[in-house]
TrEMBL record:
Keywords: Signal. The lineage of its organism: Bacteria, Pseudomonadati, Pseudomonadota, Alphaproteobacteria, Rhodobacterales. Gene3D superfamilies: Periplasmic binding protein-like II. This is TAXI family TRAP transporter solute-binding subunit. It comes from Paracoccus spongiarum. The keyword Cytoplasm does not apply. NCBIfam families: TRAP_TAXI.
Amino acid sequence: MRVRFLFRRLALVAGLLGASLLPGHAQEPQINIMTGSPTGTYIQFGRDMQGLMSQCGKQMGVVESAGALENFLAVRQRRFTQFGIVQNDVLEYMQTFAGQDPVVARTIRGVRIAFPLYDEEVHILATRDIPDFSALGGKRVGIGNENSGTFLTSSLMLSLAGLKPSETRTLGPQEGLAALKAGEVDAFIYVAGAPASLYAEGEIDPAKFHLLPIRNETLRSVYTPKTLPANTYPFQTEPLDLVAVKAVLMTFEYDMRGNAYHRAACEAVSDLSSLILTRIDDLKANGHPKWKDVDLSAIPPGWDIGACVNRGIAPDYVANCTAPVPAASTGSDAESDANAAYRRSICEVMGC
């Protein structure tokens, strides 16, 4: 599959060039989170986490990116990049091929879960003559930037549904909207947590364009069925059936007993983990609306929670802050020790 070869190529380049491939230098913040496009939900979540760290007297950079594939590789390769937001189907895809491909296996080694986040809706904006997702065969479709989770999700969904567009174009969300308005594509796919500012602020004419319902039974069995409430966007006046994929905050398995870089990175991971857990009610009240949907117990199968995360959410851990933080508001049957420890800490704070 095309996405497998893309990921393998990216992984090989990252492995050969290391940190020089992905910028990260001393003049930048020494704590960073890889997010996505400026119109997406990832970057807004990143800014909310940046605010938490700022309350703790720590500077954290919010880095724009092409999306989930780039973010995953950056956590593995980019210096001073302790966090990246990734889609769960990207994780499942990599787990599937890790046993068959040593490059993929080497690339995912050491990458860990920090927190499961929210469901991201698959938005497909199209011309009015296209009634639904199943009518995309023979059409010109934007499928996201090559380094994005949207690209992988789009490719998988079209393949699973047996649809063959007449042309697929690798377009980011803003480029996709511009191409649609210019008549250069018939539809474009964008995976983002609703409400996504691209659609809320994009001046979309409801007489010409609409979001496509996704009712394909195969897709609704593989992904999470969702209903987008009416008036989520100004041009969308009726409820809409579609599918969604989970967004996950990823990190790396830093060694607190290792060198100075590992110790500092682990402390950053522990501090942000502690702040997210103890300030989750504040995030749900004042952050992006998708914080209300975050279920910290929904660990993706096949992946472990990072040791530095578990260190930070332990009941006796206190974030190493240089500024005061407001007082906090008070898987599988064979679960790993790391994930079991994570669940115990979550339950102590939030109840189970």
